[in-house]
Each structure stands twice: as C-alpha cells, then as structure tokens.
From TrEMBL:
Keyword Transcription assigned: no
Name the UniProt record assigns to this protein: Transporter, NhaC family
Domain Na+/H+ antiporter NhaC-like C-terminal: start-end pairs: 184-459
Annotated organism of origin: Alteribacillus bidgolensis
Residues that span the membrane, as ranges: 61-81, 101-120, 141-165, 185-210, 260-276, 282-298, 318-335, 355-386, 398-420, 440-459
C-alpha cells in the first residue's frame, strides 16, 4: 500500500488544531482538505479540490446521506408543528420527577432505538430537549448521553446498520460462511469493549458515580445555577427551527389538544419501515414523512400547503450539519490519496504479536478513525489485514475483531466531524466543537478502560 509517509498525517492534524483554536468545525474541515490537496498536487491543488468536491457530491452514499438528513429535518419540523412532540414531552414530563430520571429516560431511549445511529441521535436529542431543559440540564450533557448511545449501542446489536455492514465483511473475508455472518457477529459482541464501556460510563455519570469532569462540570454548573441550558454561541444551532417552535407557541390556543399518537405512530413507522426496507433509513424516513402528512391532514390540524411548507422549513437548520458531513468526506478523500491508513498500519504492524494484537489494533485504528472520520472505511481497510494476521500469529480471532469494531465506535464517538457526533450536537442544539470538548474526558476514560481490557485479555485468552 502506497503512502506519503508522515506527511499523510498533516491534513488531519491541521483540522484538529484549527478546530481547537477556532471552535469552528466546517471551516477547519475545509482548511484541512485544502492542505491535503496542496500536499498532493502542489500548485494544481485547487482544480483537484474542486474535482474531489464534485466527486463527493456525486457519490451515491453522500446523496443518500444528504436526503436522510434533509428528510429528518422536515420530519422533525412536522412533529414539532403538529404538537405531537409537545404531547410526548408533556407525557414524559408527567412521569419524570427529577433531572436524574430525565437523563435515564434519554439513556433508555438511546438503547431502544438501536437500529441506526442517525435515527438514534436525531430522534432522541430532539425529543428530550424540552424535558431536560425543564430540569436545568446543560445541552452539553444531553448531547453526551445521546452520542454515547448512538454508535456504541449500534455496534452491540446484530440488527443495526453498523452490524449488518460488518457481518457482510466477515462473510467476504471468510470469517463466516455465506449467510452465517450474524452468528459470527454474535460471538464478537462480548469483545466489543468500547460499546459496553461507553454505555455504562454514561450511565454511571448520570447516576453520579462518575463526577462531572472538566468542561462538563462548568456546563452543568452554568445550567444549574443560572438556568442557562444552551451554551453561548449555540443559540442558532438546532434541528428545531426557531420559527417553527414559535409557530407552535402561537398556535397552541387554537390547536386541538396535542395528541401523542402524532408522535408515536410516525416514529414507530420510521423504525419499522427502516427495518422492513433492509435497514434503509432513507426509505424509512420518507415513508414516515408521508404517514405524518396524511395523519395531520385527515385530522385537519394543518392544511396541505401548510404541511408541505413546514416540511420544507425543516430543511433550513439541516444545511450546516450537511455542510460538515460533505466537507468531512472531502477530507476523507484527501486522506485516502495520501495513504494515511496505509502509513499507520505499516508503522504498527511490527508491534502486533499475538498478545498485543488486540490492544494495538484498538488504539491504532481508533486513532485513525478519529483522525480521518472514516469509520466504516477503517473496517473495510483493516479487517482484511487483521483477519489473516490473527490467524498467522495465533491471536484470539474474536477478541481481535472486537478490538477493530470498537476502534470504529471510538472514532465515531470522538471525531469532531463524525456524522453521529455532528448530528448529536446539532440535535441537542449546541455547537459541534463544544460537544466534542465537553464529552472528551469521558471518551478518553472509556477508551482507556477498553484498551486495558484488550491488553489483559490479549495475554490471558
């Protein structure tokens, strides 16, 4: 595998440094991408950057992602404007008596909606904003709880989009026979340490066993003492447009009593049809939008023109997260052309003894996933190397595979421009870098515990 040596690290490092200095995610990604193409093409960098941008926009996966995010924006706007989200919030609020119970419900919802990290992050964050605000919970803590039950839970459930992708790789690489990838994945699940640890670390944080750490402590103090749940600079960041929310408040007296069925039925349709369509979130959200519009029209809650206007209005707050996601794929393209994955693998391969393979795979590939924002890409590149290597040096296969899957989940959880990170932050109504910085101590704690587990079991199994 060809690479540019240590130079391949420069774009990813540039993004991280620029983002930490400016707290601006989109601009940091653009800067890092341009630096990558300067390294690749020198004075011809700009045409290459433009070509990469066009290629990314023309990629079916990116098109799928853009449609998913836009339709989710419209779907959420309909739930809010119809009063369905309000009714759900009022119902849950009536059952919740404390901040701790509000966060526990958020955590449980994250575990239940395991089918896809996008559906998980968007549904849970937007549903629980109003409730956690009532109990003076910082949006930073809400975003951390949401993000910790997105990718970490998806890698633990063999029926999620993440698991189905990985078990397909298992079959392609000969770990399992055709049609038996699911059974192989079940054997790996106990060894996906990062998923388990991240879920329990956030639970212990909610229960107060793990104290609020660093920037999260500051955010919680602000929310509890001043009642300011949304951090400064995040006022215009939300998947629920201010105009839509204002429209709900203005129309509440005229509206019939909000019905919870206008929340639950669309969400159930979303999850059920996503599963029916072979775990396709786009088909699921399109059908859910159609069902929601039909329900609200026949209940005469809104006119058909108002329903479609509300749906289109829901696109507006999604433009920024879409920009981040598209820019992150341009950076991924630059990193791939520079051979970042190949360079890191080449450097860590000499360290891979049978005992050290799991921990080295987790740490190195976790860092690659964090730096590149390519989580499924790390699986596609790494598994064909790790599987024969584990067989050749007689390392525990299931432990080694669990380490690689954990690395992708760690990267998704920690990366400032990872899709689930961006959507968890935006869904919770805060800036992405604020979310990344406040949850980082907990991610590092979870990562350290996971690495220790792989180190110990690497020598004992």
């Amino acid at each position: 595998m060809e690479h540019y040596g240590w130079i391949s690290l420069v774009p990813a490092l540039s993004v991280l440094i620029f983002a930490l200095l400016t707290r601006r995610t989109l601009e940091s990604l653009i800067v890092g991408s341009i630096i990558g193409f300067i390294l690749l093409e020198k004075e011809n960098f700009f045409p290459s950057f433009v070509d990469s941008s066009l290629a990314v926009m023309g990629d079916p996966t990116i098109g799928w992602l853009i449609f998913v995010v836009l339709f989710f924006g419209g779907f959420i706007a309909l739930l809010v404007k119809s009063g369905g989200a309000l009714a759900f919030g009022d119902f849950v609020s009536s059952k919740i008596k404390s901040k701790k119970s509000a966060l526990l419900i958020t955590w449980l919802m994250g575990l239940i909606i395991f089918i896809d990290d996008y559906i998980n992050a968007l549904t849970v964050s937007t549903s629980m904003q109003r409730i956690t605000d009532k109990y003076k919970t910082s949006r930073e803590l809400l975003a951390y709880v949401v993000d910790s039950t997105a990718a970490p839970i998806c890698v633990l459930v063999p029926l999620s989009t993440w698991a189905i992708y990985v078990l397909g790789l298992f079959e392609a690489e000969g770990v399992a026979d055709a049609g038996q990838g699911g059974m192989a994945y079940l054997q790996v699940v106990p060894f996906i340490f990062y998923g388990w640890v991240a879920i329990f670390v956030v639970l212990l944080t909610i229960l107060g066993v793990i104290p609020k750490l660093g920037p999260m402590k500051t955010a919680e103090l602000r929310a509890e003492t001043q009642g300011i749940c949304i951090p400064e600079g995040s006022g215009n960041i939300s998947l629920v447009d201010d105009e839509i929310a204002a429209g709900v408040d203005a129309d509440e007296k005229k509206m019939k009593e909000p019905k919870m069925i206008n929340f639950f039925i669309p969400v159930i349709v979303l999850i059920a049809y996503t599963w029916y369509a072979g775990i396709d979130a786009l088909q699921g959200v399109i059908v859910a939008v159609a069902v929601t519009i039909a329900m609200l029209f026949f209940q005469r809650i809104m006119k058909l023109t108002e329903l479609f206007d509300t749906f289109i209005d829901g696109f507006k707050p999604m433009i920024y997260p879409i920009g981040i996601l598209v820019a992150s794929f341009i950076l991924v393209d630059a990193n791939e052309k520079l051979g970042l994955n190949a360079y890191v693998i080449e450097k860590v391969e000499p360290l891979m003894s049978s005992s050290l393979l799991p921990v080295v795979a987790f740490v190195s590939m976790g860092l690659v996933a964090f730096a590149t924002g390519s989580f499924w890409g790390v699986y596609a590149v790494t598994l064909p190397i790790i599987i024969p290597l584990a067989e050749a040096i007689d390392a525990n296969m299931w432990l080694s595979l669990g380490a690689v899957i954990s690395a992708g989940a760690f990267g998704s959880h920690a990366c400032p421009y990872g899709d689930a990170t961006v959507l968890s932050a935006t869904g919770s109504g805060i800036d992405t870098m604020t979310h990344v910085i406040t949850q980082l101590p907990y991610i590092l704690l979870s990562g350290a515990i996971s690495a220790l587990g792989y180190l110990i079991l690497g020598f004992t199994l």
